[in-house]
Amino acid sequence: MAAQARGQQTRVRILSAALAEFSRQGYDATGVADICSAAGVTKGAFYYHFATKQAVFLELLDSWLRQIEGRVRQTMVTEELAPTRLLGMAHMARQVLRDAHGQLPMFLAFWAQAARDPVAWKTIIEPYRQYRDLFAGMVENGIDEGSLRRVDSEAAAQTILALAVGMMLQGLLDPDGADWGRAAENGVALILDGLRRRS
Q: 154 lies in which domain range?
């Protein structure tokens, strides 16, 4: 049990060091030696837990996406009407941006790697497609409950998702340029203004 606990601690140290190094100097410039030095572990310990640098990167990416998914799912556990739930997701952007503060190179690396690495692309694109389907379902629920007018739910979902990704990127690039959490809420409110059913 003690050996297992130590192994888990080593794995966590490697992930933490990799996150710090990827955030500090980007994915491409970071080597396994950099991660090992920052984590205070040998290369043997590194390769015991991870086959490659990419494996560490993908685990960090998956962890980030699962955190976002967990917050999204929390907003779904409510009896509120669809517009209120969509605004709740926009409010969630505040926490996502707060968590991402200071890690711009890491998040840019996620997107950059996805553009040229099929494994990273698959890891990052599947959750986006799930969010698109989730938003489309929420819009369809809003249409069925009468809170939203009849629209192309997939087009509406793609617009909401594009707003979310764009706000996240702006918030990472220029964290002090605006209150990006409020900007996300205002953006979703503007979209909802066009989607709401007029009495």
A: 53-195
**Does residue 7 register a pLDDT over 90?**
no
SS3 11: helix
Nearest Cα to 41, choosing from 68, 64, 11, 66?
11
DSSP letter string over 97-161?
HHHHTT-HHHHHHHHHHHHH-HHHHHHHHHHHHHHHHHHHHHHHHHHHHTSB----HHHHHHHHH
Same domain, 106 and 33: no
Burial of 24 (0-12, 13-18, 19+ CB in 10 A): middle
d(C-alpha 142, C-alpha 81), whole Å: 7
Each residue's pLDDT tens digit, 46-97: 999 999 998 998 888 788 777 777 777 776 666 788 888 888 877 777 777 6
Please indicate, yes or no, whether residues 41 and 62 belong to a single structural domain of this protein: no
Please report where in the chains the tokens 């809003």 appear, as a residue: 142
> Residue 40 burial (CB < 10 Å; 0-12/13-18/19+)?
exposed
Identify residue 93 by its one-letter amino acid code. A
Same-domain check for residues 168 and 117: yes
How many Cα atoms occupy the beta-carbon half-sphere of 156 within 13 Å?
28
| Domain of residue 66, CATH code | 1.10.357.10
Q: What is the pTM of this model?
A: 0.73
The counts of H helices and E strands in the chain are: 9, 0
